[in-house]
Amino acid sequence: MKEEIAKIESEAKEALEKVDSTQALNDIKIKYLGKKSELSNLLKEMGKLPKEERPVIGSLVNEVRKKIEEAILEKEKFFAKKDLEEKLEKERIDITLPSTKIKRGSKHPVNRVIEEIEDLFVSMGYTVETGPELETDKFCFELLNLPQGHPARDMQDSFYITDEYLLRTQTSAVQARTMLANEEKSPIRMICPGKTYRREDDATHSHQFTQAEGLVIDKNISLADLKGTLEIFAKKIIGENTKIRFRPSYFPFTEPSYEVDISCFKCGGKGCNICKQTGWIEVLGSGMVHPNVLRMCGYDPDKYSGFAFGLGLERIAMFKYGIPDMRYLYANDVRFLSQFER
Ligand code: DAH
Question: What is the pTM of this model?
Answer without folding.
Answer: 0.72
